[in-house]
Design goal:
With 255 residues, the protein is an alpha/beta fold. The protein is built from 9 helices and 7 strands, in the order αααααββαβαβαβαββ. Strand 1 and strand 2 form a beta hairpin. It is elongated, with a radius of gyration of 34 Å. The N and C termini lie far apart (135 Å). Belongs to the methyltransferase superfamily. L-isoaspartyl/D-aspartyl protein methyltransferase family.
């Protein structure tokens, strides 16, 4: 017979598996980062899922309400500290919105309940830039660009008279807006009466500053406030009936 011929053995399943493992090891050796990269894929998927669920949870109305309540409790705690440490009869200037409120009430500057509630909710300090480096709660006149801006108590006395005479569904127009503090107060009061506040700014820039400040503090407040961006809109406004019209005045300095 043909004793010199040989036949190659048929590869078994085990041999094929071993060959595959060897090829895989060689591939891993050549591409050292392949295995770690493959492991990162499921990790990235898990992280993405967790972050997505967290964002959904964060914007859940119930969760938002919880954080709002926590913020209100923190504000109440701060108010209590002010009540226990600040003497509205003393010479010290108010340094917080609560102290400012106590200062006004103690001097009977503000007597209307609607305006008092608005002052508590609208922080005067939020309408002053940090770079101005002034205490926004001090009750004194300010000189800006050669003009005298009335003190907060002077302005709020006027607003107090206005608020005492506002009917339900009041339609109010105000000329001038400043940084938006007084406008925000009136927006709170008028909005509570289911009315509408129309603001005629003296310039487009001041209208934008006012709208931006109010929107950053409380976007929902803008639902009851309309700000005219056109400084020439007084003529159109004058032809509309309003329950109350007043001006956030500015008096030129004399001498």
């Amino acid at each position: 017979g043909d004793c010199g011929s040989t036949t190659a053995p048929t590869p078994t399943y085990t041999d094929s598996l071993i060959d595959s493992i060897i090829e895989w090891r060689q591939l891993v050796d050549k591409k050292g980062m392949l295995l770690p990269t493959l492991l990162l894929i499921p990790i990235a998927v898990v992280i993405t899922y967790v972050l997505t669920q967290f964002v959904v949870w964060l914007f859940n109305p119930t969760v938002s309400s919880f954080f709002k309540k926590m913020e209100e409790k923190a504000q109440q705690a701060q108010n209590q500290r002010s009540l226990s440490t600040y003497d509205p009869n003393g010479d010290a200037d108010p340094t917080s919105n609560m102290e400012f409120f106590l200062y006004l009430c103690n001097r009977n500057v503000v007597t209307d309940q609607k305006l008092q509630n608005a002052i508590l909710k609208v922080d005067r300090g939020a309408f002053f830039l940090d770079i101005e480096n002034i205490n926004p709660y001090v009750d004194e006149e300010r000189n800006i660009n050669g003009s005298v801006i009335p003190s907060p108590s002077e302005m709020l006395r006027c607003l107090d008279i206005v608020c005492q005479n506002l009917p339900q569904n009041a339609k109010v127009v105000v000329f001038g807006c400043g940084s938006g503090y007084e406008v925000a107060l009136m927006g709170r009061v008028v909005g509570g009466l289911e009315g509408q506040l129309v603001v005629c700014a003296d310039s487009i820039d001041s209208a934008r500053v006012c709208a931006t400040n109010i929107a950053q503090m409380d976007r929902d407040l803008m639902d009851s406030i309309s700000i005219c961006m056109d400084p020439n809109s007084e003529k159109e406004i004058a032809n509309n009936p309003y329950d109350v019209a007043f001006s956030l005045f500015c008096v030129e300095e004399v001498g």
